[in-house]
C-alpha cells in the first residue's frame, strides 16, 4: 500500500441518472483524470475503483456506473443495494434530466440502505456561461448563486443552461443531499464531489482495516456483491496520484 | 442520404421533449407495459405478412422515393461529373482493384448499378490477383489458391437458380469470403430469396417498403415523431463505434439513425434499446463494402449516390429486423431473454469448468455483472467489428438459433478461455479483467478457434438442453434419463 499507515475503508458508490448526462464521464475524470467525447453508452453497469485520501483515513470507492436508459432500470436495485453512497447525476442543460434525477433520489430513499449518502450532481457546466471564471474560485459546494434568492433564470446568450443552480440547490437542501455542479470535460468540481461524499460517510459505518485483504469492509454479510472481501487495495484503475483535493 | 421531400433537414434531437412520455415514477413506458411477448411476436410477424399482400401490387407503382430511381438507375451518370479526390479510389485497407473499374464517385465500384439490382451480380465481380511465381512465395501462392478454391465452392452454391441453403450454411459456417458475404448474409437471413427469379422483384418491393416507412416516419418532422425514442437514438449514434472513422461521417450517422428509428417504431414492445445501435453496424459495414473499393472502415459514404445509400439502408433495416426477430425478448421490458441467457451461461459454466464457477462464486462475482453486456450487445463490445462480422458468418449459418442459442456457447467458450487467469483473481480484478478482455490482437484464427470450441460445447450439452431451463435451475443428466 502506497498510502502509509492511515486506516483504509472501502465505500460502495453507485451512479444513477438519465442516459447521456455524463455519469461515465464523471467517473472517468475521477478515476483516470481523462475525458473522451462520444464514449460508447454504458450497458448494464461498469465497475471501477479509486482511492480518496482524507486527512485521517483513506477511502477506497468501489464504483458501479450504471446504464442510463430506461430499459435497464430494472437492474439498478442490484447495484444500489448495500451502496453506502450514490451520485445522482443530471444534465443541467436538459430540463427533463432533473426530473429523472428526482425519481432516482426518491427510489434510493425508499429502497436503498438507510443512511446512504446521496449527492445530486448537475453535470456539463462547461456548456453554460459559468464554465469560465469560476475555476478554482469555489471550494466545496458549488453555490454560485448562494441561496439563490431572487435569482431569475439568467438566459444569457450562448448559455445552454436549463436548470438554475437555485432550483436544484433548493431541492437538494429539502432532501438533505449534497449538491454540486460539475464539468467532467474540464474537471471542474469532480474531485470535490467524491471528497465531499467521502467526508460525509459516517465513520461509524466504516469498517477499518489494516491492510490489503485483512478483512471485509462495506456492506457486511448481506453484501450480495461482496467484492470487498480480500480486495487488493492497489486499485487497477488508479492512476490519479493526487487523490482527492483535501 | 435518404432524400425525403418533406424533410429537407434532419429532425432536431429534442432538447426538451414536448411531452414527458416516461412518467417519472414509472420504470417503463405504457406501450411496453401493455404489450405482451405474444403481441410482440405477432407484431414482428406483421412485417412479413404485409409482404405477401404487397406482392400483388404492381411494380409500376414505384414512383416515389429512392426506389423509383433504382428502376432508372442507368440514367445515373451525373455523378461522373463530380470531382475526384486527390487520392485514387483505392482505400488504405489494400482492397482489390477491379480491372474494369472506371472512376466515378471516389471509391464507388463501376458496376454498382448491377449490384443494386441483384446482389447475385457480385459473383461475376471477384478479382483474383494474378499469381506470379517470381513475386509470390510458395506459401502466398498456396494461400491464393486456397482462396480461389474456397470462392469457387461458394460460387457453385450461390450461382444455382435456387440456392441450397443447407449447403450454403455448411460452407459459410467456417467463414465467408468478403466479396460474397453481402449476398450470403442476405440469403442466410432469409431476406434475399433463394430462388433467383424472385430476387429482383422482392428486393425492389422490400426496399420501397423501407423507404416509404422512413419517409412517413420523418414526414412531419419533430411533431410526428416519438420524441423519447428519437432522442435516445440521436444521442447514441455519435457514440456508436466512435473509434472507427466510418461512423464519424455524417452520412453514416443519418442513415443509421433512420434505420434504428424505423425499426423502433415498428416494434413498440421493445422500442429502441441501447445495444441495438451496435448490432446494425456489421450490416452497414458489410453491405456498404459491396459497393465500394478499399477499406470500408475508413470510407466516407458522403459521396455515394443516394440510390446506393437507400439500398444499403433498406438492406440493413431488413436484415437487422430478421436478426432481432430471433432475439426480441432480449429487448422487451425487463429483458427476459437476457436474464435467461445469463442464468443459462452460469449453469453451462458450472458443467464445463466447475472450478471456475466455484471461484467466481467464492469471490462473489455474479454472472449478470459481466455477461449482461455480452448478451445485450452480442459480444460486440468485446471484439472488433471485423471479428464480429466473422462470428456472424457462423451465427447465421446456425439458422434461427444462432444469435439466441449458439451465442450462449460462444460466451461460455469465451469465459472459460480465461479460466487460469480468472482463478487467480479477486472480485475487483475479475471485474476489471472481464470488462476489458485482451482481445485487441485477435484475428480470424482466434475467432475460428473460439467458434469451434463453442461448437464442441454445444454438441456436448445441447442434447441435454433441458438442463437449461428458463428459470435457470439445473437438471442433472441422471434426471434426464440419458
Automatic annotation (TrEMBL), chain A:
Taxonomic placement: Eukaryota, Fungi, Dikarya, Ascomycota, Pezizomycotina
Keywords: Nucleotide-binding
Name of the protein: Uncharacterized protein
Residue ranges, annotated region (Disordered): 136-160, 205-233
Residue spans of biased composition, Low complexity class: 136-148
Keyword field contains Amino-acid biosynthesis: no
Protein's UniProt keywords contain Signal: no
SMART domains associated with the record: RAB, RAN, RAS, RHO
Gene3D superfamilies: P-loop containing nucleotide triphosphate hydrolases
Compositionally biased spans, kind Gly residues: 210-230
Acidic residues: bias regions: 149-158
Signal peptide boundaries: none
SUPFAM superfamilies referenced in this protein's UniProt entry, alphabetically: P-loop containing nucleoside triphosphate hydrolases
GO MF annotations in UniProt: GTP binding; GTPase activity
Species whose genome carries this gene: Orbilia blumenaviensis
Automatic annotation (TrEMBL), chain B:
Origin species: Orbilia blumenaviensis
Domain Rab-GAP TBC: 175-399
Compositional bias annotation for Low complexity: 22-31
Gene field: GYP1
Bias type Polar residues, positions: 1-12
Gene Ontology, cellular component aspect: Golgi apparatus
Protein name (database record): GTPase-activating protein
Family matches, as SUPFAM superfamilies: Ypt/Rab-GAP domain of gyp1p (SSF47923)
GO molecular function: GTPase activator activity
Chain intervals for the UniProt region annotation (Disordered): 1-33
Amino acid at each position: 500500500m502506497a498510502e502509509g499507515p492511515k486506516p483504509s475503508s472501502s465505500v460502495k458508490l453507485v451512479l444513477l441518472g438519465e442516459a447521456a448526462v455524463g455519469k461515465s464521464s464523471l467517473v472517468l475524470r475521477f478515476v483516470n483524470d481523462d475525458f473522451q467525447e462520444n464514449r460508447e453508452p454504458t450497458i448494464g453497469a461498469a465497475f471501477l475503483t479509486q482511492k480518496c485520501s482524507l486527512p485521517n483515513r483513506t477511502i477506497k470507492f468501489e464504483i458501479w456506473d450504471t446504464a442510463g436508459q430506461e430499459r435497464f432500470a430494472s437492474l439498478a436495485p442490484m447495484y444500489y443495494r448495500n451502496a453506502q453512497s450514490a451520485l445522482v447525476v443530471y444534465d443541467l442543460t436538459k430540463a427533463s434530466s432533473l426530473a429523472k434525477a428526482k425519481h432516482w433520489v426518491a427510489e434510493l430513499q425508499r429502497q436503498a440502505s438507510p443512511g446512504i449518502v446521496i449527492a445530486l450532481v448537475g453535470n456539463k457546466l462547461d456548456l453554460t456561461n459559468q464554465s469560465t471564471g469560476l475555476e478554482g474560485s469555489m471550494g466545496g459546494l458549488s453555490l454560485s448563486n448562494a441561496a439563490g434568492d431572487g435569482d431569475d433564470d439568467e438566459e444569457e446568450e450562448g448559455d445552454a443552461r436549463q436548470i438554475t443552480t437555485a432550483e436544484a440547490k433548493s431541492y437538494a437542501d429539502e432532501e438533505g443531499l449534497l449538491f454540486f455542479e460539475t464539468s467532467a470535460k474540464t474537471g471542474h468540481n469532480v474531485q470535490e464531489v467524491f471528497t465531499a461524499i467521502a467526508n460525509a460517510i459516517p465513520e461509524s459505518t466504516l469498517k477499518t482495516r489494516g491492510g490489503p485483504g485483512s478483512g471485509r469492509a462495506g456492506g457486511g454479510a448481506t453484501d450480495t456483491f461482496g467484492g470487498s472481501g480480500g480486495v487488493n487495495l492497489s486499485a487497477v484503475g488508479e492512476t490519479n496520484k493526487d487523490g482527492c483535493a483535501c | 442520404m435518404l432524400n425525403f421531400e418533406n424533410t429537407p433537414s434532419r429532425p432536431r434531437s429534442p432538447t426538451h421533449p414536448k411531452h414527458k412520455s416516461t412518467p417519472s415514477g414509472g420504470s417503463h413506458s405504457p406501450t411496453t407495459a401493455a404489450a405482451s411477448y405474444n403481441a410482440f411476436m405477432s407484431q414482428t410477424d406483421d412485417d412479413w405478412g404485409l409482404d405477401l399482400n404487397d406482392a400483388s401490387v404492381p411494380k409500376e407503382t414505384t414512383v416515389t422515393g429512392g426506389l423509383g430511381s433504382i428502376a432508372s438507375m442507368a440514367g445515373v451518370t451525373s455523378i461522373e461529373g463530380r470531382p475526384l479526390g486527390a487520392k485514387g479510389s483505392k482505400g488504405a485497407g489494400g482492397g482489390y482493384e477491379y480491372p474494369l473499374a472506371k472512376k466515378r464517385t471516389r471509391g464507388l465500384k463501376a458496376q454498382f448499378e448491377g449490384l443494386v439490382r441483384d446482389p447475385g451480380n457480385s459473383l461475376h465481380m471477384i478479382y483474383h490477383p494474378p499469381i506470379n511465381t517470381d513475386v509470390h512465395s510458395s506459401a502466398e501462392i498456396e494461400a491464393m489458391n486456397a482462396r480461389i478454391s474456397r470462392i469457387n465452392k461458394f460460387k457453385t452454391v450461390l450461382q444455382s437458380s435456387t440456392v441450397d441453403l443447407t449447403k450454403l450454411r455448411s460452407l459459410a459456417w467456417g467463414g465467408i469470403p468478403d466479396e460474397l458475404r453481402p449476398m450470403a448474409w442476405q440469403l442466410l437471413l432469409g431476406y434475399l430469396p433463394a430462388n433467383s427469379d424472385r430476387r429482383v422483384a422482392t428486393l425492389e418491393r422490400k426496399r420501397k417498403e423501407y423507404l416509404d416507412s422512413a419517409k412517413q416516419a420523418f414526414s412531419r418532422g419533430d411533431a410526428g415523431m416519438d420524441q423519447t425514442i428519437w432522442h435516445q437514438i440521436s444521442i447514441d449514434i455519435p457514440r456508436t463505434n466512435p473509434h472507427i472513422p466510418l461512423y464519424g461521417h455524417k452520412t453514416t450517422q443519418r442513415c443509421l439513425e433512420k434505420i434504428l428509428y424505423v425499426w423502433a417504431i415498428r416494434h413498440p414492445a421493445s422500442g429502441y434499446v441501447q445495444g441495438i445501435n451496435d448490432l446494425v453496424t456489421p450490416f452497414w459495414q458489410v453491405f456498404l463494402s459491396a459497393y465500394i473499393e478499399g477499406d470500408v472502415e475508413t470510407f466516407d459514404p458522403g459521396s455515394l449516390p443516394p440510390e446506393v445509400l437507400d439500398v444499403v439502408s433498406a438492406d440493413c433495416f431488413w436484415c437487422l429486423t430478421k436478426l432481432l426477430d430471433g432475439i426480441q425478448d432480449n429487448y422487451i421490458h425487463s429483458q427476459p431473454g437476457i436474464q435467461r441467457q445469463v442464468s443459462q451461461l452460469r449453469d453451462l459454466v458450472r458443467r464445463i469448468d466447475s472450478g471456475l464457477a466455484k471461484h467466481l462464486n467464492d469471490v462473489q462475482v455474479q454472472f449478470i455483472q459481466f455477461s449482461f453486456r455480452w448478451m445485450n450487445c452480442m459480444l460486440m463490445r468485446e471484439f472488433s467489428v471485423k471479428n464480429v462480422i466473422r462470428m456472424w458468418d457462423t451465427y447465421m449459418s446456425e439458422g434461427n438459433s444462432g444469435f439466441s442459442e449458439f451465442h450462449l456457447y460462444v460466451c461460455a467458450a469465451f469465459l472459460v478461455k480465461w479460466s487460469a487467469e480468472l482463478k487467480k483473481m479477486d472480485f475487483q480484478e475479475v471485474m476489471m479483467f472481464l470488462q476489458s478482455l485482451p482481445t485487441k490482437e485477435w484475428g480470424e484464427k482466434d475467432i475460428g478457434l473460439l467458434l469451434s470450441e463453442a461448437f464442441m460445447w454445444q454438441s456436448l450439452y445441447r442434447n441435454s438442453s433441458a438442463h437449461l431451463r428458463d428459470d435457470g435451475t439445473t437438471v442433472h443428466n441422471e434426471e434426464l434419463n440419458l
